Amino acid sequence: MILHLALAADWHATGPGGYQVSTLGKTLQEVGFIHCSHDRAQLDQVAATFYAGVTEPMLVLHIDPTGLDVREENGFPHLYGPLPTASVTAAHPYSPVRPA
């Protein structure tokens, strides 16, 4: 299982060609891959780096990578190609961890 942080609006707008957002404001076509994470710690790192200040709802997509072109690069999984909606096993609201 791998994870992807998505704006809820982007995920809900997914068409028949699959989800094609790499990260905030960047498409698969622009970047060449979809950023993913191995675990919550990496996901929080992505959120802090790319989504700081975002106030709209975000989702954590849980992805079954079976049959997908996923490559390990710089410690993170990258998906080369659109994300088929059938490969998403769950989507949960994302809440960043707040310091105590």
Can you walk me through this structure?
The chain is an alpha+beta fold and 100 residues long. It has a single domain, classed as Protein of unknown function DUF952 (ADP-ribosylation fold, Alpha-Beta Barrel), CATH 3.20.170. Helix content is 20%, strand content 33%. The protein is built from three helices and eight strands, in the order βαββαβαββββ. The chain has a three-stranded antiparallel sheet with strand order 1-5-8. A three-stranded antiparallel sheet has the order 4-7-6, with no helix packed on it. It is globular and about 30 Å long. The termini are far apart. The mean pLDDT is 93. InterPro entries: DUF952.
Structural class: alpha+beta
Helical residues, percent = 10-25%
What is the CATH top level name?
Alpha Beta
Number of helices: 3
Properties at a glance:
three-stranded antiparallel beta sheet; DUF952; 100 residues; alpha+beta; 3 helices; 8 strands; globular; ADP-ribosylation fold; 20% helix
